[in-house]
Amino acid sequence: MTTLTRPTDTLTRDALTVLQPGFVGTSAPDWLLRRIGEGLASVGLFGRNIASPEQLAALTAQLRAERDDVLVAIDEEGGDVTRLEVRSGSSFPGNHALGAVDDTALTRDVAAELGRRLAACGVNLNWAPSADVNSNPDNPVIGVRSFGADPLLVARHTAAYVEGLQSVGVAACTKHFPGHGDTAVDSHHDVPRIGVDSEVLRARDLAPFRAAIAAGSRAVMSAHILVPSLDAEYPATLSRRILTGILREELNYDGLIVTDGMEMQAISATYGIERGSVLAIAAGADAICVGGGLADDDTVLRLRDALVAAVRSGELSEERLADAATRVRALAHWTSVPGAAKRPGGAPGTEIGLTAARRALTVTRGESYTAPLTDPPYVAAFTPMANIAVGDETPWGVAAELERLLPGTETGSFTGADAGALALAEAGERRVVAVVRDAHRHAWMAESLDVLLSARPDTIVVEMGVPQSPPTGSLHIATHGAARVCGLAAAEVITGA
After folding, report:
1. Euclidean distance between CA atoms 381 and 164, whole angstroms
2. Does pTM surpass 0.70?
3. Distance CA 301, CA 261 (A)
4. Cβ neighbours of residue 252 under 8 Å, at least 6 residues apart?
5. DSSP notation for 105-118
6. Taking residues 316-341, what's their average pLDDT?
7. Closest listed residue to residue 489, CA positions, set 85, 161, 101, 81
8. Which of 176, 188, 476, 480 is catalytic?
9. Which of 15, 162, 184, 244 falls between 20 and 30 A from 471, CA-CA?
10. What per-residue confidence (pLDDT) applies to 163?
11. Catalytic residue among 260, 286, 305, 438, which?
């Protein structure tokens, strides 16, 4: 690789400052500490970087020994998307559960408690909340990450989440602008396209972002989506019309604009990460998120040098890069000054997540329902492919909690056309608890559930995705999310605990 810059150049420092890279391991590698010394101002953390709260606190202290105002970011939405509890499942229900309760004070308290846990570990920027209006029920990547399908509901809970998170000194990064809810494609794999006119988009999808800006969201994350009514050529992350024209000028947003992960196929397979990063900064983005998949020094140097080369060629103005770097440093300063621009946080308590999960349940008892389970059942989990944002590391379901409450509970995971028949064969004479996730989106899952219920109408059904299908079974529990606490709340109802 040819290095175009000297580490001490102002231009080089600005190019490093606008990057938010990831890394591999549970301690900071030497290359990362060296780049922080040269001007890198942000680091992104993922599940692979976290083993325990104590380890995470030691890691962030290691980073701050190199630079005391470094931004340490994480993708901790709670619910299905968790990094703090990636191997156990989250202690907090996600947005859809909070939207189902529709108590903004509860949402604020949940966000504040989650923020306290992040702050205690040294994390000061959260790539959350998701402000997407889940207007397309077939959306493969948002779903329970959204507060719901009603723009006004999503707006008020987005604002409450921002207020709660920032009340404890953790900056919110509201995403995915201008709204990823009306998509049928996951931008991790391809470029989603939203075909609605600009009036619909402004009234529906932008409403939560207006609320987030009014609540003082310190950062906003762009989406890799094509919205032809706003810009027929470039996806939002690369669109000056969207990032500068709408977010900055129309919505009067003055905080940090962060890109979604640049290694996602919507950008990397179409533009490449170097070209994409240059276009994003030129369009008005201030920070380049990269590191979910590409997490090494070579990636950082490639992006740094691409930005510097673009300035030197005249493709990217030096003033625009300097402005982006200034915004990054301003947010770093906000997070590093105790008490600055923060509201009192209150004390919701460590059980707030379970309280919210219990309140979020929708329980429907059928005609064949008799009483809570007292004997250990067979749990048949109908398992869809996890989307990349959630990942497949995080456990989900009710089996673990039912095993704790009813020792001897057994479980199996089933996928595909024969799932129902296979589950019946494995269950034998035991009572069946069927666990599904977005049954309305998977024909094989709905058909398998029909097979199971035809043979065993006393089956208990737990829907842990977006509950679009009619309630079925002797007992139907919609949890509005698959977090660990959602499974615990459901298990309590099943057993009468």
Report:
1. 34
2. yes
3. 17
4. 213
5. HHHHHHHHHHHHHH
6. 89
7. 101
8. 188
9. 184
10. 98
11. 260
